[in-house]
Amino acid sequence: MAREGGLIAWQWRGYADNHRDRVNLLLHFVAVPAFIAGALAGLRLLFLGQWLAAGLALLLAVVAFGVQGIGHKREAVAPVPFDGPADFIGRVLVEQFITFPRFVLSGQWARNFARG
């Protein structure tokens, strides 16, 4: 799927509309950092050969992502469906590592929460 301006710009344009429900905002506020911590720790632990610990860390990332999915079901505006596995991976990684942190740091998370 072609996205004007690239994935990061495309995701940002609609992000505030897909993140208005207060419960979803709170779930994301906790789950996105958990996803980031689990993913980064999991990769580091894999590199160090600590397989069990890596698996547990990556499980944390998966659970955190699942929690966000539960939150998204509460939203009036649903996210655009994924267009295959590559789209899924790209959009998830961009959301977790770029778009949601930007959403919080820009003040838009707080504005949407206040409007909630």
Automatic annotation (TrEMBL):
It holds the Pfam family Mpo1-like. This is DUF962 domain-containing protein. InterPro entries: Mpo1-like. Keywords: Membrane, Transmembrane, Transmembrane helix. The lineage of its organism: Bacteria, Pseudomonadati, Pseudomonadota, Gammaproteobacteria, Lysobacterales. The chain crosses the membrane at residues 23-42, 48-67. It comes from the Bacteria.
